[in-house]
Amino acid sequence: MSFLSFSKYAIQSIFRNKRRTFAAIIGVLLAVTLVAGENVAIDTTTGSVFKQMMDTVSYDFVGRSSTNREFTNATRDLANVTNVEMVEPIVDLGMVEICEWGYNGSQNVTFATLQAISSTFSRVANKFGFVSDPSVPRGHIVLTEDMAVEAEVSPGDQVTLRYTNYMAPEPEYYFLNFSVAKVVQVEKPGEDEFPMFGPMFWFFDTIFVNLEDVELIISAFDLQDYFGYGLYSSYYVWINKDAVVKAGDPAKTNELLGRMKRDLNNAGVPYEISFEDSMLGFIVGFFSIWIMMYRAIFLALALPAIILGVYLGIIGAELGLSERRREIGVLKARGANRRQVFGLLIIEALILGVIAGILGLIFGALASNLFSMASPYGVAPSLLEMTITEFTIVLAIVLAIALLLFSAYRPAKRASTIPVTEALHKYSEEEAALRYKPLRDVIFIALAIFTYATLLLMKHFTGAGTPLTFALCLIAPLLMVLTPLSPFFLIIGVTSLLTRFSTKIYDWTSRATKFFTKDLYAIVNKNIVRNPKRASSVCVLIAMGLAFGIVVSSMGETQAAYIERSLEAQIGGDIALVALTVNRSFGTEIQDIGGVDKLTETAKLSAISGYENIHTNVWAINSSAYWEVVQPDPYYFKEGEPASTISMLSTLGNVIVTEKLAESQYLRVNDVFPVEVHNSYTDENGTWQSEEVDYQFTVVGIVKTLPGFMGPDIGIFTEGEMYVDFVTLNETTFGNQTWKFILNVESGQDPVAVGESIRVSYPVEITDILVYEEELEKAKSEPFTGALFNFLLVEFAFALLIIGVGLGLIMYVAATEREGEFASIMSRGASSRQVARLLLGEAVTIIIIGCVIGIVTGLVTAFVFNELLSFGIVGLGQGVLDMPLVVSFQTLILILLTIVILIVASLLATLRIRRMKLAQALRKRGG
Amino acid sequence: MVKIPKIVTQDLIRVYRTGKSEVIALRGLDLEIQDKEVVAIQGPSGCGKTTLLNLIGGLDRPTAGSIVVDGANIVHYSDPEMVKYRRERVGFVFQFFNLVPTLTAKENVQLPMRLAGKTSKERKSRTNELLDLVHMHDRAIHKPDELSGGEQQRIAIAVALANDPPLVLADEPTGELDTDTGKQMLDLFHSLNTKYRKTVIIVTHDQRISSIAHRTLKIEDGRIVGEVATKRGALKSTES
Ligand SMILES: Nc1ncnc2c1ncn2[C@@H]1O[C@H](COP(=O)(O)OP(=O)(O)OP(=O)(O)O)[C@@H](O)[C@H]1O
Ligand SMILES: [Mg+2]
């Protein structure tokens, strides 16, 4: 058979058996849809951000000449260059001074740059930040606002401009009179806009004159000889960006911009104008690096869905081939050789890959609105504004082909080597008991365990300077590769080993379905074992999907909990504020502000503590008020119980220390240690005072930190902290100094609003104010991590879809394949319900195995990854707070949801049994 | 004494509709079969034999007409009643055996009993009994595709008898077997009738059936076109 006839045969078989085609591509299709959708979303959302950014660029090109003065002709010729939309000349006439009418002295003069603009300048004024039109008539000047204020002139005034020629042997002065036409306002571009390039009129004091007055000014100031020395003309050029700038394609853009620059230089030759590179190229380049980065990150994050998709692809390919054994047998009987059969199957996979790629692109694009919330620039675009770049198209199709070839390769290889007689056989035991080689799975498990163990060890041993640290550095690159893969290794290895090495697992698990399969449970097991590989693949699929969900959900929850915990540790109550040089009683003023409930004041002092002269912070607190406002969670207490320990502070000499201080000073509860407390303040006379007092403190509790006191500097400049009551610091004077107040708002009050009214009441005194709810909101709405998390959620939805379809497909095929068998069971008196239960029993057995493995590996993986993450986030084990893995309600719901979806999928597949026509099904076996 | 017919069909019609075309498999078939009678059914291919057997066995429902078994019209049975009927009163033997490939011979025999919710003790003793009956005790733990065609069919007969149904239906049970094995099979059906007092309906082309069956019914084009009394039938009628 030639390639062409092969392809024809392949295409026919693809279109004739739609269900088989569906089974073969659905996994890859879903994975590609996810990737394509995310890329379309990134392109579309970044595309609109890119457009906005482009609009904030003041100009596209600038060319300069320091000799030529044919401004009008040059402007005209430049404007005639292809793709040029506007040209505006600005002539820089150097620095002048503005003098009041009739006053020639050197006092009270204001320097400014003198700039000539054309009468059409108003059309581009806003691009340079002008709020009002700066157009200036001949014989007049226009001033920037600051300038006018400084020089004390207003519209209608007559002013004299003085030019000083410092190039002359002795400074020479020249004067020229103008009347002030108007004052204009120029604004600095906003922070979120792309940095403005070009004349910074908002920054320099500037005087504008009409371009047509330039010759007059040159002769009046006698500038003609100096035009080459610092005086020059600039030609700002705006181009048709749509024709030249290709978002996401820096190479093409740079080429087109390069050509534009060449054309402009060409037109500028007679006027000795030379053009600089456009900033647009830089922006496009900068932007495409970001887009590439996002793409890379999201592609990496899509790995779980891609692996799931491939796995479903393999299942689909194998289902297809087991159906086609006869067909392959017939092909071989008719003379096809191995290579031809293999080639045929691979060509089919290739065609399917193209189909999956195109469909994935279409579905991805249609669903891109769903993904736009998972894009860092989360603006939901309308479908019409969708950007589908060549990159996305190529990525989708190449990915689809690669994944399909990957998933089809092994099954095709195997199918091509089946002996003809066996292939023609209806059903063969040999296939069922497919030779299982445990080596691969053992290696997988070993690699996963190695990786997990190393990651855990890393947390405990790095930083200690042990040889282990060195060894870890050596294998770091290996770990980078292994870490994301090891969950998959673990799941594939464990599941395959458990289910394929022995069939006992199926046996035990099928017993668990006894409650609804009744006496038939014995048969359930036998049926699964008939094709252990197929069942095993679905278990793997379920386990991977579920584990992925558990990892995402629990790590998300852990992150959220950690953020909440650190904010609590920083703020302590609803609001924390720091006020400078205020009295201790400032608190009562704050308390009078509407909505403020209880409040407690604290002061941060420094100290040298212990016998080793260690620098620490000492927080002076009012222990009973602190308890009432904060009521710290037992979480913070390593030694001692919150209420009693804090109340012990009111006894003279008692102190609570942080874990870190306890460690560095080898302190335990009841230990007494010396502390030299330093405080500085201003006294009633406003004189700066500082004092040092020696105390002996007794440790009554050890904490991670007390909530309200964790600051970013902890652990960097000081060796821990301690907390004592003002009672204990009886020899320290508190005056006007820095106080920190922790407060709660009255119930029913909005903390954000209360915070705002505190802020506006004391704008000078209060230097720092943190509102818990506000900070939490800020942390939650952080766009990049938000996008990542949303993407993972969308991805989990895809994973659910993949495993649901996977199980449903297998069950459906099982139901179809065994229709005759079921019919014969029914002819012996089974009700269709019994048969459906039998089938469901198989599904549930697979679900149970998959879920148990998924939950266990998911939790283990989440734990290891969380340790790794907390190692990074909490900062090389130096942090104050730990980040224990949180597995809560949300994760539980997710597990239940998965199980429900799987059961529904298998129920749907068994519906077929209910509709089966008995006599007809029996006939299929002949008779 | 007037014999009460065990199975009576009247005006039995079965029309297969596939898309636009219609095939009338049975066109008003009337039939009476006595209790504990062995009846052979013969006719050309496509005349409706399998269709008739499926209807009597409760595997399929007629388009029109009635099938009265032991006084009850099974056509009116609800689905659960039909399941019970198949489970307790009919044993089917197929041309292609229809054993469950994943189960051993013994487990196949036990399957109908499991379906009927028999205790494991009941199942065990009954299975042993049946395996003895079909002389398959020594192959009990083999799976169907480790057995010869004749052995498979013997197991299939044991399966059919599992719940001790009074009626055994066999659709070309010897079709896949060689002549000698076919003969053994027919002997087995004979003993079912003589020893265990089963009513047996056999569709077969095997001419040796005449020594076993009381009557042979000829079907053509969905109707009974004739009845041939066999040696045994003649013997029996003289007996009575
Ligand atoms: N599901 C069906 N759909 C359409 N026609 C059918 C169907 N089943 C059977 N028939 C037709 O009904 C007629 C009777 O079929 P049946 O199987 O009862 O014949 P038979 O006597 O058993 O034949 P054979 O000796 O070849 O087994 C045939 O013409 C057959 O083609
Ligand atoms: Mg037939």
Outline the secondary-structure elements:
The complex is a heterodimer of chains A (927) and B (240).
Chain A: H1 3-16, H2 18-56, E1 61-65, H3 71-79, E2 84-100, E3 110-117, E4 140-144, H4 145-151, E5 158-165, E6 172-184, E7 206-210, H5 214-221, E8 232-239, H6 241-244, H7 250-268, E9 274-275, H8 279-301, H9 303-323, H10 325-333, H11 338-366, H12 368-372, H13 390-416, H14 420-424, H15 429-432, H16 439-461, H17 467-474, H18 476-500, H19 504-512, H20 514-517, H21 521-530, H22 532-571, E10 575-582, H23 586-591, E11 596-609, E12 614-621, H24 623-630, E13 637-639, H25 642-648, E14 654-658, H26 659-665, E15 672-682, E16 688-703, E17 721-725, E18 737-745, H27 751-761, E19 766-771, H28 772-780, H29 783-817, H30 819-827, H31 832-873, H32 889-914, H33 918-923
Chain B: E1 5-18, E2 21-34, E3 38-42, H1 49-56, E4 64-69, E5 72-73, H2 79-88, E6 90-93, H3 105-115, H4 120-133, H5 149-161, E7 167-171, H6 179-196, E8 199-203, E9 215-220, E10 223-229, H7 231-239
Parallel strand pairs in B: 3-8, 3-9, 6-7, 7-8
Antiparallel strand pairs in B: 1-2, 1-4, 4-5, 9-10
Helix pairs in contact in B: 3-4, 3-5, 4-5
Provide a descriptive summary of the structure in words.
The complex is a heterodimer of chains A (927) and B (240). By secondary structure, chain A is α+β, with helices and mostly antiparallel strands. In chain A, 55% of the residues lie in helices and 17% in strands. Chain A is built from 33 helices and 19 strands. In chain A, strand 5 and strand 6 (172-184) form a beta hairpin. Residues 427-432 of chain A have low confidence and may be disordered. With 240 residues, chain B is of the alpha/beta class. Chain B has helices spanning 49-56, 79-88, 105-115, 120-133, 149-161, 179-196, 231-239; strands at 5-18, 21-34, 38-42, 64-69, 72-73, 90-93, 167-171, 199-203, 215-220, 223-229. In chain B, strand 4 and strand 5 (72-73) form a beta hairpin. In chain B, helix 3 (105-115) crosses helix 4. The mean pLDDT of chain B is 87. Chain A binds chain B through residues 427, 429, 518-520, 522-523, 526-527, 529-530, 820-821, 823-832, 834, 917-919, 922-923, 925-927, and chain B through 50-51, 54, 57, 59-60, 79-80, 83-84, 86-88, 92, 94-96, 98-103, 107, 111-112, 114-117, 143, 145, 159-160, 162-163, 171-172. The structure holds adenosine-5'-triphosphate and magnesium ion. Magnesium ion (MG) binds at residues 49-50, 171 of chain B.
